Amino acid sequence: MTTEEQVLERIERARRRKARVREELVTLAHGAGGKATRTLIEAVFLEAFRNPLLEPLADGAVAGGLAFTTDSYVVTPLFFPGGDIGDLAVNGTVNDLAMCGARPSYLSAAFILEEGFPIADLRRITATMAAAARAAGVDIVTGDTKVVQRGKADGCYITTAGVGTVAPEVRLSASACEPGDAVIVSGPIGEHGVTVMLARGELDIEADLVSDTAPLNGLTAALLDACDAGQVRCLRDATRGGVATVLNEMAEASGTAMILDEDAIPVRPAVRGACELLGIDPLYVACEGRMVAVVGGRSAGAAMEALRGHPLGAGAAVIGRVGEDPPGLVLLRTAFGGTRIVDVLVGDPLPRIC
Amino acid sequence: MTTEEQVLERIERARRRKARVREELVTLAHGAGGKATRTLIEAVFLEAFRNPLLEPLADGAVAGGLAFTTDSYVVTPLFFPGGDIGDLAVNGTVNDLAMCGARPSYLSAAFILEEGFPIADLRRITATMAAAARAAGVDIVTGDTKVVQRGKADGCYITTAGVGTVAPEVRLSASACEPGDAVIVSGPIGEHGVTVMLARGELDIEADLVSDTAPLNGLTAALLDACDAGQVRCLRDATRGGVATVLNEMAEASGTAMILDEDAIPVRPAVRGACELLGIDPLYVACEGRMVAVVGGRSAGAAMEALRGHPLGAGAAVIGRVGEDPPGLVLLRTAFGGTRIVDVLVGDPLPRIC
What's residue A308's pLDDT? Predict the structure, then answer.
């Protein structure tokens, strides 16, 4: 299929906007954060629950100065280099609030434990959760514990929810991206996903990698402070589906094109090497401490300065710009001078990464 | 052991207050809502996350006029007479907010789905969730979907969180119960737990029962409106662990005695019959649409009138009173004129009831 045909197909797809789930049974792809997840969310959840706050399908809902978000964590293994399910569950929800432009206030934590799960592991997990909450400046103020029989869970699942406050002047939205904006990532991508994949020990690859899991609320606060009002258009943490999925959602919501420069995308050699062996593109690999920021051209310099001045943004890079054509698509100018479409994620190359 | 010895042992236990988990592995009892759950929460979760908002270990946290709560739902079977996991997940979190004296505003919903779960079942569940949200007057504004491999979950787990607003004059607390207060239940107890147990089809008992799952925010609003300020001391929905567990927590927190009158406790004949066959006491069986209210003597009449005037409180009854002695205990005056201690729930007679 030529690029032009792909564009036409994409526009046609957008026209028949009503999402439909073709499968009769839930598949792993429905949880991968890509195309199937989006379809399931639109066709089942949005269809049933529709309301103006849910409709944008953002990282969280914002109303009356309050942001509210939730995520379940089912990562396997529970412990991996650089973190565990505990700090992942805290940082992930802190980051969803931060991506709403919110200052996180309170977290909840609900545990689904499998009968026979070691109490010592639970203590280890709660200790990293507590440390992550302290680092992010939030309190875990309410929670729940359920236990299911052996074989009915995989050790421990955690669901956190978070509330935070949003300043009245902050209005972030995927639909706010405009031609001329800069597309920024806050650091090298794909480290969390590859680290977890390798930690499963199913692959004969060794790499000196740790998860990038980190709370981004300090970084987003610095960014918002540094930029003129309204210049930060949209923030998204690049979790399941990676940078490619986030940018596709932004392109579609704003009717713009995201034009990326392959050479500018920061990927550590160990991630690149592992991805080549796994046959996956780092653009689709989850990060848990990296975000995509789309910033108006006027504030792009100030944004980069603010990001690079923060320990969690030291590796920030402008990876492309927002264009007009083709609307709704993400294009990558490759190192070899060609251009290819970066489509939404199909299937689930890396299940249960978070 | 005589009643006096039990009292002494109980006081001694309260003295060595620091909870300790003796088990090395998580057991079903840790999820039953009774003694083991409490110990796990105090020794692991509270120990790690300690902060003034979490400390009361109430149904939710209240700060600055905002209430925040979460619960995971792992009920089996997913569908049962009178409801399913969907309305349970909405009503449960609505009720936890209502028990904080809050007016529920927003809910989140996070799904952990097992690969192979029928999409049709998911649609059925989201439809009942949407209906329950409408009935309670709340919107589901944010959510998450994760999928785990076959055999790593039991169809579908749902975690909801909720935020609501609390009027400044409303201050409910288990420690606020005072001698002379009336102990009220809002209707017949144990229907949800027995219904779910029978729906599993493992027992050769048939009963004409449906779950009592319902949103109690309308009922609590009516109650708070009807009573003088400060007269409603504490509200708790009698879920896992049942009325007995809730009353034990209130007695312990307030240092009072809860003196119940067995004859006054409303239990439908079908529930009583099933409980006799199962060898369990209805006082420990979960309700999902009934609450315990402790109300100052001065407002007890007004409270009963308000409850009985509401469809969900038509079967409300004063089941006892708060006394001074023995502090921290729940006593039951039996139909035969005797008195027995109603202890906290030990073990898990009815796993995965919610």
Answer: 98
The third-level CATH classification (topology) of the domain covering A174-341 is Phosphoribosyl-aminoimidazole Synthetase; Chain A, domain 2 (3.90.650)
Please state, rounded to an integer, the average pLDDT across all residues of chain A.
94
Residue whose structure tokens are 């480290």: A191
The pLDDT tens digits of the residues spanning B145-187 come to 999 999 999 999 999 999 999 999 999 999 999 999 999 999 9
Q: Using a CB-CB distance cutoff of 8 angstroms, which residues of chain B are in contact with residue A54?
A: 139-143
CB proximity under 8 Å: A 249-308 to B? none
Query: A49: distance to nearest CA of chain B, Å?
Result: 6
Nearest to B165 by CA among B65, B59, B64, B61: B65
Tell me the pLDDT tens digit for each residue of B254-287. 999 999 999 999 999 999 999 999 899 999 999 9
Q: Does the CB of B200 have a partner CB in chain A at under 8 Å?
A: no
In tens, the pLDDT along A26-71 reads 999 999 999 999 999 999 999 999 999 999 999 899 999 999 999 9
CA–CA gap between residue B20 and residue A53 (Å, rounded): 43
Closest partner residue to B142 (CB to CB) among A37, A69, A153 is: A69
Helix, strand, coil proportions of chain B in percent (round to 5)?
Answer: 35, 25, 40
CB contacts of B161 in chain A (<8 Å) are 68, 70, 108, 110, 159, 161
Selected from 3.40.630.10, 3.30.1330.10, 1.20.1530.20, 3.30.420.10, the CATH number assigned to the domain covering A62-169 reads 3.30.1330.10
Output DSSP code: residue B344. Answer: P
**Model ipTM over 0.90:** yes
A14: pLDDT strictly greater than 60 = no
Query: For residue A155, which amino acid is it?
Result: G
Shortest CA gap B28–chain A (Å) = 6
- Residues of chain A numbered 161-190 and touching chain B (CB < 8 Å): 161, 163
Instruction: For chain A, say whether B63 makes contact (Cβ under 8 Å).
Output: yes
> Quick one: DSSP state of residue A25?
B
Give the span between the Cα atoms of A291 and B264, in whole angstroms: 59
